[in-house]
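TEACHING EXERCISE
Course module: macromolecular assemblies
Task: Read the component lines below, then compare them to the predicted structure of the full complex.
Student: A.B.
Group: 4
Components provided:
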Amino acid sequence: MSYFADKQPLVTDIFSRYPASPQGRRSALMPLLREVQDAEGFVSEARMAEIAGLCGTTATEVRSVMSFYSTYHTLPTGRYHLQVCSTLMCALAGSDELWDHLVSVLDVQPGEVSPDGRFSVQKVECLGSCGTAPVVQLGDEGYYEQVTRAKCDRLLAAMRTDAPPPPDNPVPVTVREDGRQMLANGERVGASIADLAPVGSAMSGGEA
Amino acid sequence: MKVVVDGTELDLPAGTSGIDAVFAAGRDVPYFCAHPYLSPVGACRMCLVESGSPRKEKDGTFTLDEATGQPKIFWFPKPMAACTMQATDGMHIRTAKTSDVVAKAQAGMMEFTLLNHPLDCPTCDKGGACELQDRAFEYGYGASRFGFDRRHADKHYPLSDFVILDQERCIHCKRCVRYFEEVPGQEVLDFIERGGHTFIDTGEGGLPTGFQGNITDICPVGALLDNVARFRGRNWEYDHTPTTCTLCPVGCSVTLDARNGRLERVVAGENREVNEAWICDAGRFGHVFASEERLTVPLIRVDGQLRETDWDGAIAAMQRGLGGMSLADLALYLSADSTLEEGAALEALAGLTGTPSVDHWPRYGMNVETTATLTDVATADAVIVLGADLGEEAPVLELRVLEMLRGGILPPEFPHGTAIADLRLVERPTRHPERLAVIGGESRLSAHAGLRVSANGHNALARLMRPDTDELRAAAGLLAEAKKPVLILGADVLNSVTQDFTAALADLVTRTGAKVLPISAAPNSKGLAHLNLVPRAGGLGYDRLEEARAAFISRLDPAAHSLPGRARGFTIVHDTHLTRTARLADVVLPAVTNYEKRGTTVNLEGRLLPLRQAALSAGEGADLIRTLTALAEVLGVRAPVRGLKSAQALLQTRLGVDVTGLPNGGVIRPLGQRFEAPAGQVYAPRLWKERMHPDPERRGSGVPDREDRIATWELPMHDPALQPGGDD
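Instructor-supplied answer key:
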């Protein structure tokens, strides 16, 4: 039943990234939530309570943090979680019509998963791709841009055969397991957590 | 520190917040999120003011205004929230009174605050006493430019059995969230979602009982409402009576709101030295007994049955019952939550009849000297709780101990009252659990203690003096190293106080300089101990009630505690309800609750606190003074105390204190000699007594119980029973 019970190394690893203080323990909240969501597609109430126990906080606190981000889900999502931008630019370019088309074709409403377990839909706020409106984000993978009705039908057909085309624009920056960021073109940027050392020791190392 | 508010120059202590500077100048700013005992966060943005400070050149001189030759004031480019801004030397502040910018900014903020507020004031319990209503009237435009639909959300969302949340009315000031985190230290309430969708909820399936009701007091709008008082009356219909709560020995300041002779609501009053602004749930919600199933007429036993009668009938029945009995045979017992005046009246009558059997209950066999005040507890650097369950004995003392763990920061006092925003208070304060040691049974406070030692009460002190475990050694070390330690003694210890204990305690106090705060057994047992209300030589204590030839029992219910409920002979019971003991009595006289008395009570610190009479209908109920006058008539003596005035005059001579005209906050006065006698039985404190449990459903609140609520109102969360595809 417990998700983290048999993943002690992972939990230890996540906690090792933060100071060993009560505040530091609370900081592990976000990666733990992400871990559960990546594995299960959503974070159930039981998992929230479990994470609260790990972080030394309360389920209320976990839910508060989680509900702040629309990218965490309290309800199960389908294999293809379609997030339709509904902010101004996309709305001007027809995202409302796109949304209506999506929900009627797929016969799912927000919070539901289609009977075959493939599709779930969600309206989201600006995805920052106003130049290519309307935009649909597929899971965490990337954007389908300028989604017209024809393109939408094409995409859905491909997903029904479990062969979705690669996104027009992958997520610009992803964070790798080692904490290093990777641009969409594969370039690694920033530092890895492996390079981090406590401030004091880095200083003394420099002098030596 | 000189601060100029709207042209008025003030001299304020350093560290004063901008909002207090404004109020100190006699000006006003609206605010919703600031609260004297919570951290200022600047969430509501209503307390906007213009402010500016002089600037110093590199050589340390002020930059001067060329036109006037005075130091030039550099104004902040935008209005600032006064509650999170510290006033600095030479600062100038302009309020809405002198600044159009501020007036416009505040009116604009009010427009935003009211953006999603339902304006259902006519049906809102807060109407008439609502901060938002008042401030919207004073500072708003009176109209809104936002023509679109307001947000709709759950208007009857029960956070617990006692607190109902109206999500539409909430203005997101965060007071309740900060209260739970900062004061009782329970993070059970938080903002869920964000932006315009934000609402308050808990993920714990309800609020913890203890101190949850305080959020209904601090809510500046009608979002969090006391479910026991919900829809019971409008604010202007209530008779407000500021008085002292006498359900535990803390003596919190409360205001009683009564309507049509019923006590409908209790709200916390402010007493900086006792309860600050908080009261416990029992004090707030447990008042229902005062208006339910009250005994309103005397009852006499006729043919084995209790029959209603009037006082004349009762007096005649008592005369018949006590006829031919010696005056000294009538034992007199009273409840230890009676007022000092009532105690004095009973003491005087006992002196007249010469009965040696006088007692009050609950009390402990020996009294321990009190040397600490509640402020001492809050500002201590180490607290050791010995054998006490504060949640049952003195709940608000628990809050003061938790305040000590947060560093004991007491907001300063200004002529306009307690500082509205004390900038030393911060969100998520650092706590020092290592300063608290709890020795004894498990209690709610144990969770906050750095040191927990399970021990039984009677030898806890002896073990602390000669520590035999590492934990006890740590606790003893804490006590030895602290500069201002306080030792709190609870029932487990006080039930078995001996001469040895007193000597050991005196030794400990001399060695460590610790102040001692024993928790009195009952709300006024500290005061009544100074009156000779214990069995005299040859007298029968309350524990030997059944041996008495005749007894008068005031507001005590031994039968409910599986003890003999009546004397050997004629038994008179004086009580507010038809208790189990009353059912056994020969004559039952109606009493009044402490909500309906004038008088004086003494809290655990030894603070004399006034009781005032709320407008409750009590039928023919009479307090102990009047009842004893009737009893004296029965006994054929003239009652020495015949009313409140003569009782207070007697107290003046007996204890040397003037209890007339006590301030709401009370005063600590030495009361002289104490009387002690073995108690004969062990007292187990219980906060919630029979008849105190409010059942909102019984009072017609229309709120379904928890199971029904979960079925109807629980937010959409994943139900593992549902398969993907839902009901398709």
